[in-house]
Amino acid sequence: MTSETAAVRLRRPEAPQRATFLELFFDLAFVFALFQLSHELLQHLRWTGALQMLIVFLAVWRVWGITTWITDRFDPQWQPLQLMVIVSLLGILILAAALPRAYGEYGLIFAGGYVAMHIGRYLALVLAMRGHKLRPVTVRATWWAGVSAVPWIAGAFVHGTTREGLWGLAVAVDYVVFALNFPIPGTARVTPTWEPPVAAEHYAERYQQVFIVALGELVLVSGLGLSAGGFAAARTLAFVVAIAGTALLWRIYIYRSGELLSAAFAASPRSAPLGRFTVYVHLTMVFSIVVAAVGDQLVITHPSGRTPPAWAVVILGGPALFLVARAGFEYTVFARVSWYRPVGVLTLAALAPLTRRASPSLTLVVAVAVLAGTAAADAHRGRRREPEQPSPPRSGPP
Fold this sequence. Notes:
Layout: H1 2-5, H2 21-43, H3 47-73, H4 79-98, H5 107-128, H6 135-156, H7 161-179, H8 200-229, H9 233-258, H10 261-267, H11 271-301, H12 309-334, H13 340-351, H14 360-383
Helix pairs in contact: 2-3, 2-4, 2-8, 2-11, 3-4, 3-7, 4-5, 5-6, 6-7, 8-9, 8-10, 8-11, 9-11, 9-12, 9-14, 10-11, 11-12, 12-13, 12-14, 13-14
């Protein structure tokens, strides 16, 4: 058969599915990238700065996400795959190092590094998968990487809003075609039989790990804020509240849905589309933590006085965005959304105008209180019924 003659080594169903030490090593580069992102957002806390950081965050996340997509499908002991992971680690470090001046003189380094990584990895898989039935997917991915490379590279040679527009277009293309499984106009559609199911335990573990990595960024930023500002009573209290919020984010994530993600993939009749939806859900949750990290650092450094509107946006907006994404995560695992998650989002939005007269510390207390209410509602729901088993959407995510 053609698949037997291919040089590539796919992950065998009976092989161990735990994440490898190499993948954990790769995550260290993502820690640096998240720190750079939160620092730059803190330095450019305005709408244009937020848009710029969102675009580069999406680029960095896609490197992590595609690396996970590849390692989930191929034998972790296959040496070319291990080399690909190490090169991806180097690539994320380069992107993160160039990030502070990506919209300045390092634009070509950022865009060129991003494009080179994706085209290079896809081309390597195309060559390795000669004769394999899954090769058309990698060919299509390479074709689309070449298409998005045009606005990425063109954007590096212009400045201001033109660069933002071109890079925004490029990253939109990258994410849309991935969601649609890399369709090419005028060619046959990739059928579900070409989509191997995800390795449930491995795929779930990788997203659980990246969420913990993001929480680590929140802890790091909070600790640095306290260390730089000193142990004054107001700063110390703000630090304690921030850490309580971090613990609540962990609790809300892991309770049932986070614990059962692997079982949800195993129970899904089409785990590959569900896996792609999981990419976007976790993307949003991780970005919400980057936003929350900026808010925590602001509050710990300046706990008193009035809360500027931009500060209120990140202090309340980070938890609100997390609850939105967490609702999507719940739908992934249980095909439903608990009513108190949208209520939490609406509560944060309704309280936002009232924070203009409040101190940053009080604004943070409000955000953490809403998270505490959500966690309490989760616990109350769990006490009232038997532990719920995963029941992912039968027809795939919306």
